[in-house]
Structure formats: C-alpha cells, structure tokens
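## Example pair
The file below holds two records. Each record gives the amino-acid sequence first, followed by its structure token line.
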Amino acid sequence: MTMKISRRGFLGVSTFAFSVTMIAPRVAFAARNALRSMRTGVQPGNKTRLVIETSTRPSYSLSYPEKQLVVDIANMAANSSVVAKLASGTLVADVKQVQSGDHLRIVATLRKPIAELQKSQIMLLEPNGDNDYRLVLDFSPTSAEKIAAAVTSGGATQNKTAQNKNIIIIDPGHGGKDPGCIGKNGTREKDVVLSVGRKLKAKLDAAGFKTYMTRTNDTYLKLVSRAEFAETHKGDLFISLHANANPSRTVKGFSIYTLSEKASDEEAKKLAESENAADKIGVDGFTEFERDIRAALSSLQQHAVAEMSEEYANGCARAFRSNKVEAQPGPGVRHAPFAVLRSTVPGALIELGHLSNAGEERLLKSPDHQDKLVAAIVRSVKNYNFDV
C-alpha cells in the first residue's frame, strides 16, 4: 500500500518505489496467472500489510527463512513491469521476484523476524472495482524467544490476544432537529435507527464486544462529530444505521454502503448527497466541516480502511440474506462519498429498509423485524476478521 495509516489517527502519507530483481529462465509459459501489483502499508497495532494482486485466484504457499517472508505462487511468471510500492514504517526492506520453474517466488526481506502467519492474518479478497484478486498478509515483529514460545505453545499467545474485546461503534443516524426520512404513516427514521441501535448494543455487549453509541437519545449530532467519536473511542468497526426513501414507493429492501470518492451508481450518489446534507440543518460550522473533511482525505487516502470496510460490508450483506432479510435490487454493496464514514475506522452505512414503502415502514416499526435486523448485524460482526 502507499500510505502509513492507523485507526487511532492520521499519520501521514509516504510512498516509495523500489527495484525488483528477477531471475527468469528462458522458457515459454502457457496462459497462466499474472502478477498485477505489490504494495505494503502500516496497519493498526503496528502491523505491516503486504498485498499481492493477481489476475486469477492464486494457489500459494508461505515459508519463513530468517528475516524473510516468501510467497510461492503456482503457475505464474515473473513480471518486470510490476514495480512494488513500499510505504514507510513497514517491516519490509526489499522485495524480489524469483522464477522457479512454473512458480513465482516473491521474497520479502524483513527488518525484523516474524512468526509463522496464522489463518487470521491472511485474507484472499475477491475482485472488486479496479482490483483483481488480492492476497493480503499482515504481520508484526516478533522476537526469537516469542517465536519459540509460539511454536511450543501451539499459538497460545495469539489465542490470548484474540480474547481482547473489539470495540464496535454504533451510529444511529440523524436525531434531534433532523428526523431523517419520514414514512407515509409518520414513522421517523431517527426513531427506528435509535431503537435498532439500542438493541444492537445490548446483543453485542452480551456477545463479548465493547460497544459505544454515538447517540443514546434524540440528539442532533454533526456528521464530523460521529466520525471523531469513533476515533476518540478507538473503534475497530463503525456501523452507521439508517432507513432509506425512494421516489418509487414500490422499492424496498436493505442496502449497504462503504466510503468511496466516486459513487458506484447515480442512486448511491444521491443518497450520499442527501445524508451529507444533514449537517446543513445547523448551518454554523458547515464550512469548517467541509475543510476538515478535505484535510482528512488528503492525509489518509483511505486505501487500507476501504479494503477492511469492503470485507465487512460484503459479510454483512451475506448475513442479511442468510437471515432472510429482503435486499434492495442491485448490487449487494455500493459505494459513495458518505461524510460519516470518513475516518480511520473501517465501517459501513446500513440502510435497513425503505420508509417510503408502506409495507416496509410497518416492518421497520415492528419489534420482531428489528430483532431480525439486529441478529443479522450481530452475525456479521462475529464473522468479521478483526485481526487483519
């Protein structure tokens, strides 16, 4: 990756390119997987992330020579056009591509030793937008003593760490003088999402998570204060709850959004504009808010957070469908420039349904349906991999 990033605050951007050394035999290769890009970045908890992008799903193995991480990918040729990008502050000092028969060996030379990566430290992301398949590896420096202890204890150190409580920020949208959408029968978005938010907090607390709500009553909050709340409370995941409206009263179903500077479709663009306009209710300070947003974007660039948010959003959409919650027609996960998502905390904006649809308005008021929605979100949080 091309930035230094932390969920605890903005740490600036720094990009470096370095040369790739290759040893390639003179053989003819059949159609095969292709190396698209390599990049590194700093993740929360002082972790280094190595991302290897390939044209098709990679078949790979990992090995750990002294102060090296070696990724061996089958059916792939070295690619001299790929120049890896290395962010400052990572463990990776150098990377080489080495051809070994029909395997490409990507050798990352490390500044400090690491332990063998566990399953929770490895992600294989599906193609998304401009990205192909991405093998994502996260690791931290480890002393020789800790490596030996991890081997003899079967990973007990990591299991102990996994017991730490992850922090979930629940953000019921709108509130106070901002009612949000209002259904034909008078149901207000701000009331629905607060009710769902309270139930969600109770369920997540019971499941062992540490949760905070941006608002616990009928209070108006600026969007920037919601994002800052997530930063201040050192959130690991940010969930913003909303209910939608559509000019067509036949449209219904949930939808999930992540942050992107370019909206995935016209409807997503209009929705973001509508949600972002909530701050204009209190005109004072809006110009300053816009300036803060621009500063946040210039210092962050959101790449790592976007990948983690995308992972959560896709899992959340699956959880909703598994719980038999009807989806809005179209993509399961959409993207738009929502101001409330502009932070270093991964997250998503969930539109629970459409208050503009009379049938769904009744459902959104129903305690039973709210419980169904909460169960789906709890499931998505439990399934989310917080370790990457």
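Second record, same layout:
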Amino acid sequence: MAKRLPDYFEDIRQALFGKTSQMNIQESAVQAYGAMTRELKNLGGDTLSKTAQQFNEALPYIERAGYDVTEVEVALGLSPKVVPHLRLRELIEEDQQQALLEETQDKTLINTILSSLFRASAARRKLNFKRFHFEEIELEIGIIPGVVLKFRPNDQTEKHEMVNAIAAD
C-alpha cells in the first residue's frame, strides 16, 4: 500500500526530533536530512508517474477543447511537474466548453485543466502587446498547478515564415 502524504510528514517529523534520546543534534540533523530527501524523492516519483498517467487520460479532452499538444516537458526536483505546451487549434463555443466541463466534473484534474484552458483563452483575448503575439499555453501540472501564456515577438514569426517560405521553394 502506498504511503499517504501525512505518513511522509510523520517520518520526517520523527527523523527531525530523533527516534532515540541518545542522538546528538548533528546525528539528528543528518538523519532528518536523509529522511526528508528520501521521502520527498519517493513522493516526487509517485506524484510524477501519477501526474503523467492523469495527463494521458486528459489528452483526448484537451484535443476536444481545441488544443494541440506540441511538446511535453518533465521538470524534476522537489516539486516535480509535467508541463505540456499547447497550441490553440480552434476556439470552441461556450456551450461546448460547458458540456466538456460537465462531462468531466468527476475527473478533478481533467476538469481543472479544461477550466484553466478556458480561463486562459479568455484572458489572452484581453491581453494586447504591441510587438508580441500569443503563441502557446504551458500547463504546469504538479503539486502547485499553473498556466503560462507565451507571447512571441511579431518580427520573429515573420522571419520564421520567410525562412520557411524560402526553404519550401
């Protein structure tokens, strides 16, 4: 049976305060540090694989919401996360958005991803930068989720399109 988060904290607490009264402060600190890094590593691995599995389940819904996944990053560390990069393919109607949210109301992570995407799409319409255009969304799926809207310089896109046009000839 997998450990729950409170179990990890209890292991760390015991290591911090010492399991026996014969331990000096330095021994207790070394043991605490080792226990903390060991437990966080275990928690991170479990969390990361579970997050990847949940993202795989969310992928068809993300595509139905009008997004294409262009790449997926995995960030390792104390707070591991899966970071898919999404490009808007089409804006779906508000009633379609609502239907997707209702369909996924029992799938917490998927529902959170979709509602974040819909809010981000609404927010990006309000953002207007003189020399930048909206290009993609990064979803940060982890212990602390987040959404990043990415804007690129307009001239970079024009140069990139020119290079592609020249290469196509």
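Notes on the second record: The two ends are 60 Å apart (CA to CA). The mean pLDDT is 77.
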